[in-house]
Design goal:
The protein is mainly beta and 965 residues long. It is built from 12 helices and 44 strands. Strand 42 and strand 43 form a beta hairpin.
C-alpha cells in the first residue's frame, strides 16, 4: 500500500526519502557477536502492570525524556505537549481567552476532547482542574507542571480503561516525576519576542543528598520560578488576524468606535454621546441617524459628528490578550528510604502554583442605549431571568446624564459610549495552586512484586474578578448626577458601578492503589506466564460554587459552577504470556463501581509477534468508558454561546433592511443555559490498533500503527448535537428598539412584535456516537559520522486521520479536515495531518536540535451544524461578523497549513557549566486566518489559538545557562 501525505512539508519528505528518520524507542535489542551485555533492567511501561526488558510494547507508547524536553527549546510543558502529533480537535491552549477554563491547558489525543485523555502523575490520578473545559469535561492542567521536576513523559496511544478506568478512551499521558537526585543543579534563562510583549524569565534550583545503595536513602528538593508577560492584541495589530478592519478583505470594518451599517451607524466610541432617536423635525431627505442635530457629543474636543462618521473616533483595543500574563512558583520535595534489600518507601510532596490574568477578551463595557434585559441566575436548578432589568435606559430632555451633563437634545436621548474607569471587561486573576502528597511502598515478598500507594491531591483556584458592571447601580448614579461619564470617578463610585469580588474554588482527589505482580508459571510455552492484579479507590470532590455577585445577579454570569463528588472503587488484573516463540499476548480487565451511576467492566487484549529480529507486528483491542462527572450530574450549570443565528420572529428572513425586522436580531449568538442530568449513563468505547515494528538496520527503528476508536452514548449538550432539538426560547418583554423601515439602512424606534431572546435551555443528554480512525508513524534514526565528526539523530512522529464521523440521530457527518465538531471541541479545528520532525547533531560539548511542527489545513465548515455554505461559515460556526450582510470570499473557506521551526543550541563550556539558546518560530511564520473559530484570543482575532499560537507569538528568543556541582 502506498500512503501519500501530499501536504507534508518538502523538507520532511526529503528527509524521509533519504532514510534519515526514526521512531519511539528501540524495537529490538541487538547484541554484537561476542559482546558481553549486562542484564537488561526491567521497567514498567505505561499501559501495563508487568515489568519488562523490551520497552517496545504491543501498545503504541511515545516517550519524551528529560533530555528531549530540554532540547525542545520550549519554556512550559503545555507548549511541549500541544505540539504532539497525536494531539487534535478539542485541545485546550492557554491562548483560548474565551474558554471557561482559560489560562489552563489540556491535551486531546486523537481529537476526542480533553475528557477522553487521562493524565496521570507517576501512574496515579491527579485532581482535575476545578474549572471544567466547556464547563463539562474534567482534565488535568498540564500548564502548571514544571520542567525540572519531570523525569519523562510517556504517551500511551491506545484505549486503557482496562487498567486505568474512566477517561482513558483515547489514551493516557503519564508524567513521571524525578525520584532521586544527587548534587546541585542551577538553571536560569530569559526570553523575549521579536514583535513585542511576552518577555519570559525562568530560574530553578535542584539539590539532593544521599546515595540509595550506599547510604540507604536519597532526599531532594527542586524549586522553579517562571514569569511570562502578556502579549496584547495591540502588539500584533500589524497582522491581518489581529486587525478588525476587514474592508480590504471583502468584509466589514469592525474597529471599535467606527459606525457602520451593521451597527446601524450607532456605536460606542472614544467620546460618549447622546442621541435623539425620534426627532420629528429632520430636514427633508435626511434620516434621523444622519442628522448631526440629533447628537450631543459629551467630549467635543475628542470627537464630533463629522469625525465620528468618518471613523476618526475609533478606539484601540489595548486590553485584550494574545497571551495572558502568567507567573509560576513550583516546589517539589522527595525522599526514598531503603527499608531492606527488597523494600523501599518513597515520599513526594509538591506545590505547583500558576497565577494568570485574563479578560476573556470581551469588548470594553459599554452603556445600554435603550434597555437592559437584566441577568439570568441559576441557583440549585432554579432559573430566574431579568434580575436587575431596566426597561428604559434613555434620558429625558433636560435630565441629568451623570455628573455635570444634561440632555440638551430636546427629546429622550440614548447614551452611547464605553463605561469609564472599569478597566478590562470580564477580567479574572486566577491563582491556581496544585498540591500533591504521595507515599509509595515498593518491594517484593513471596514471589510477588508489590506496589502500594496512597495520595492526596488538590487544585485550588483563588479568583479575583474585575471589569464587571452592576447596571442597576450605574443607572441610578447616572440619573442622580453622581457618575461622571467622562471618567475620573471617585473610588467609592467606581466600586458601586464595577465592584471587585472574589471566589475560591477547589477540586480534590484522594486515592489508594495496591498492585501485585508475579510469574505464575516460569515456563508456559516459550516463556513465563506473568500475572498482575490490583485494587483502586478514589474519592473526588469538585467544589466550584458561583461567586456571590453572579449568584444574586448583581453582575452578568460568565463563569460555570460545579458542586459534586464521586467515589470510585475498582479491581483489575492483567495476564501476559509467550505461548510460542516470539509471540507475546496479553489480556486485562477492570471492574469499576461509581456511586454516581453504577458499574462498568472493560476488558482488553493485545499481542506482539516478532518472527524475525528486524520485524514485528502488534495489535490491541480495548473497551473503554468515561463516567459522568460532577459537572454533568451534580449541582452545576453555565451560560454559553457558540454559533450565530437569526431570531425566528424578529428577523424571520435574515435581512437587516426588511421593513419590520429588528436589525440587531439578524445575526447574533444567543445564550444557552447548560443544565445537568442525573440520569446520564457513561460513554462507552471500542478501540483497535494494528501496527508493524521494523528495525532494518542498527540505529533505525520504525513503527506504523493504525487505530480506530468508536465512542457511543456520548454525553453532549443538546444544542448543536441533537438534530431534532428546537430550543424553547425564553423571551423578555418587548421594549423600544430600532426597527427597519425598509428604506435602505434606515431604522425608527418602535415596539417589536416580540421581546428579545434571553436564553434557551440545553440539558446534557446521551446521544449519538463518534468514530475516528487513522495512522501514526514513529521513526527514529541515529548514526555516528565518520572520523569522529559527531552523531546525527532524526525523529519523525506523524499522524494522519482517515475519518472522523459523528452520528446524530439518523444523520452522520464526516468531520475530518473540517472545523467540526465545533460545539464539542471549542471550534479548535480538526486537521487531518500533524507531524513533528526533529533533527539533532551532537559533537563533544555541542548539541544542536531543530524541530519542525506541521499542521495541515482544514475547511471552516462544520457539517454537524449544517454549516457548509462557504458564504457564511464565519457566522454559522464561530458567530463572527466579519462578513455579516456580505458574501464571504471563497478564500476564507479553508484554513491554510501551518509549519513552524524551532532551533535549540546547547554548549557545554565546562563539566559544570552549559549555556544554551533557542529560537522558537525561527522563520517567523504568521498564523493563518481561521474565520470560523471561536477558540482564539478574542472575538476579533481571526486565528486558531489552539493550533497556531506560535504564529501569533512570532519569533521568540531565549538564552540560558545550567550549572551543576
Amino acid at each position: 500500500m502506498m500512503l501519500k501525505l501530499k501536504s507534508m512539508p518538502f523538507a520532511i519528505a526529503c528527509a524521509i526519502a533519504s532514510g534519515a528518520l526514526t521512531c519511539a524507542a528501540p524495537a529490538f535489542a541487538q547484541a554484537q557477536p561476542g559482546s558481553t551485555e549486562p542484564a537488561a533492567q526491567r521497567v514498567v511501561v505505561t499501559g501495563s502492570l508487568i515489568s519488562r526488558t523490551n520497552t517496545e510494547t504491543p501498545t503504541p507508547v511515545q516517550v519524551l525524556t528529560a533530555a528531549d524536553i530540554q532540547k525542545s527549546g520550549k519554556t512550559s510543558v503545555a507548549e511541549l505537549l500541544t505540539d504532539l502529533a497525536a494531539n487534535g480537535a478539542g485541545t485546550l491552549g492557554t491562548g483560548f481567552a474565551g474558554a471557561f477554563a482559560n489560562g489552563a491547558s489540556g491535551i486531546s489525543l486523537r481529537g476526542l476532547t480533553v475528557g477522553a485523555t487521562l493524565v496521570l502523575i507517576d501512574g496515579h490520578r491527579m485532581a482535575p482542574y476545578p474549572l471544567s473545559d466547556d464547563s463539562q469535561r474534567s482534565f488535568v492542567d498540564v500548564s502548571s507542571i514544571p520542567f525540572d521536576a519531570i523525569e519523562s513523559i510517556e504517551i500511551l496511544k491506545s484505549g486503557a480503561s482496562s487498567l486505568y478506568g474512566s477517561d482513558a478512551i483515547a489514551g493516557v499521558i503519564n508524567i513521571k516525576l524525578k525520584k532521586n537526585l544527587n548534587g546541585t543543579r542551577m538553571s536560569a534563562e530569559v526570553g523575549d519576542t521579536q514583535h513585542g510583549g511576552g518577555k519570559t524569565k525562568r530560574a530553578s534550583i535542584s539539590t539532593g543528598i544521599g546515595d540509595l545503595d550506599n547510604d540507604g536513602y536519597n532526599a531532594f528538593i527542586t524549586a522553579e520560578y517562571r514569569k511570562q508577560n502578556a502579549i496584547k492584541v495591540v502588539d500584533r495589530e500589524q497582522y491581518g488576524y489581529a486587525n478588525r478592519d476587514w474592508r480590504a478583505r471583502g468584509g466589514n470594518d469592525l474597529t471599535l468606535g467606527v459606525p457602520t451599517n451593521i451597527n446601524n451607524f450607532l456605536t460606542a466610541t472614544s467620546s460618549p454621546f447622546l442621541y435623539n432617536a425620534s426627532n420629528p423635525n429632520n430636514p427633508a431627505g435626511v434620516t434621523n441617524v444622519n442628522n448631526p442635530a440629533n447628537y450631543q457629543f459629551l467630549d467635543p474636543t475628542n470627537c464630533n459628528f463629522t469625525k465620528y462618521r468618518a471613523g476618526g473616533c475609533s478606539v484601540r483595543d489595548e486590553l485584550s490578550n494574545i497571551q495572558p500574563e502568567t507567573e509560576n512558583v513550583n516546589l517539589m520535595i522527595g525522599m526514598t528510604k531503603k527499608l531492606s534489600e527488597d523494600w523501599e518507601v518513597r515520599f513526594n510532596g509538591s506545590m505547583f502554583q500558576r497565577e494568570s490574568t485574563n479578560n476573556r477578551n470581551a469588548a470594553p463595557a459599554a452603556f445600554s442605549p435603550t434597555t437592559f434585559n437584566g441577568t439570568t441566575t441559576l441557583v440549585n436548578g432554579v432559573l430566574t431571568s431579568r434580575v436587575g432589568a431596566i426597561s428604559n435606559t434613555t434620558f429625558a430632555a433636560g435630565a441629568p446624564v451623570g455628573a455635570n451633563i444634561t440632555n440638551q437634545l430636546g427629546g429622550a436621548a440614548r447614551l452611547y459610549g464605553y463605561i469609564p474607569d472599569v478597566g478590562a471587561a470580564l477580567t479574572t486573576n486566577n491563582k491556581s495552586t496544585a498540591t500533591r502528597f504521595s507515599a509509595d511502598l515498593v518491594g517484593s515478598a513471596y514471589g510477588w512484586d508489590v506496589n502500594a500507594a496512597i495520595g492526596a491531591t488538590r487544585v485550588k483556584s483563588d479568583l479575583n474578578y474585575s471589569g464587571y458592571v452592576n447596571r442597576s447601580n450605574l443607572y441610578s448614579l447616572l440619573r442622580n448626577g453622581t457618575f461622571n461619564v467622562l471618567g475620573n470617578n471617585a473610588p467609592g463610585v467606581v466600586d458601586a458601578v464595577s465592584p471587585r469580588f472574589s471566589n475560591e474554588i477547589d477540586s480534590t482527589l484522594n486515592y489508594a492503589d495496591l498492585i501485585g505482580s508475579r510469574e505464575l508459571l516460569s515456563n508456559f510455552g516459550a516463556g513465563p506466564l506473568a500475572f498482575a492484579a490490583g485494587v483502586h479507590w478514589h474519592k473526588r470532590k469538585q467544589n466550584a460554587p458561583p461567586s456571590s455577585l453572579t449568584l444574586n445577579g448583581a453582575v452578568a454570569n460568565t463563569a460555570a459552577f460545579t458542586i459534586g463528588d464521586e467515589t470510585n472503587s475498582a479491581v483489575f488484573a492483567e495476564l501476559q504470556a509467550t505461548p510460542i516463540k516470539n509471540l507475546e499476548i496479553g489480556l486485562s480487565g477492570r471492574y469499576d463501581h461509581y456511586d454516581t451511576y453504577g458499574n462498568s467492566f472493560t476488558p482488553s487484549a493485545n499481542f506482539k509477534w516478532a518472527p524475525i529480529q528486524q520485524f514485528g507486528v502488534r495489535g490491541t483491542f480495548a473497551r473503554g468508558f468515561r463516567a459522568p462527572n460532577p459537572a454533568e450530574v451534580g449541582n452545576a450549570g453555565s451560560f454559553f454561546t457558540f454559533n450565530a443565528i437569526r431570531d425566528p420572529i424578529l428577523c424571520a428572513n435574515g435581512s437587516q433592511t426588511t421593513a419590520g425586522n429588528v436589525p440587531s436580531a439578524c445575526s447574533f449568538s444567543p445564550p444557552y443555559v447548560q443544565t445537568t442530568n442525573p440520569d446520564l449513563q457513561p460513554e462507552k468505547s471500542k478501540s483497535f490498533t494494528a501496527g508493524i515494528i521494523v528495525e532494518p538496520m542498527r540505529g533505525l527503528n520504525m513503527t506504523l500503527d493504525y487505530y480506530k476508536i468508536k465512542i457511543k452514548n456520548l454525553v453532549v449538550t443538546q444544542a448543536g448535537n441533537d438534530p431534532s432539538f428546537t430550543p424553547t426560547w425564553v423571551r423578555g418583554p418587548a421594549n423600544t428598539i430600532d426597527i427597519a423601515t425598509g428604506v435602505g439602512n434606515n431604522t425608527v424606534p418602535g415596539i417589536p412584535v416580540a421581546g428579545p431572546i434571553l436564553y434557551g435551555l440545553s440539558p446534557y443528554i446521551n446521544a449519538g456516537s463518534t468514530e475516528t480512525h487513522g495512522v501514526e508513524a514513529d521513526i527514529r534514526y541515529r548514526w555516528r559520522l565518520a572520523n569522529d565528526l559527531g552523531t546525527v539523530s532524526a525523529n519523525l512522529s506523524a499522524a494522519h486521520v482517515f475519518g472522523y464521523v459523528t452520528e446524530l440521530g439518523s444523520d452522520s457527518y464526516q468531520l475530518a479536515g473540517t472545523q467540526g465538531p465545533s460545539s464539542v471541541g471549542g471550534a479548535t479545528g480538526n486537521p487531518k495531518d500533524r507531524a513533528q520532525f526533529t533533527l539533532g547533531y551532537n559533537r563533544g560539548p555541542l548539541d544542536v536540535t531543530a524541530t519542525v511542527n506541521y499542521t495541515s489545513g482544514f475547511s471552516t465548515f462544520d457539517p454537524a451544524l449544517g454549516a457548509t455554505d462557504c458564504a457564511s461559515t464565519a457566522a454559522d460556526v464561530g458567530g463572527r461578523t466579519y462578513f455579516q450582510g456580505l458574501v464571504q470570499p471563497i478564500g476564507y473557506c479553508n484554513v491554510s497549513s501551518f509549519t513552524v521551526t524551532n532551533l535549540n543550541v546547547a554548549y557545554k563550556v565546562t563539566d559544570n557549566l552549559t549555556i544554551r539558546g533557542a529560537i522558537l518560530n525561527l522563520f517567523d511564520k504568521e498564523a493563518p486566518y481561521d474565520v470560523a473559530t471561536y477558540g482564539n484570543a478574542g472575538a476579533q482575532t481571526s486565528y486558531n489559538a489552539s493550533l497556531h499560537q506560535p504564529g501569533a507569538i512570532g519569533r521568540f528568543f531565549t538564552l540560558g545557562a545550567n550549572y551543576t556541582f
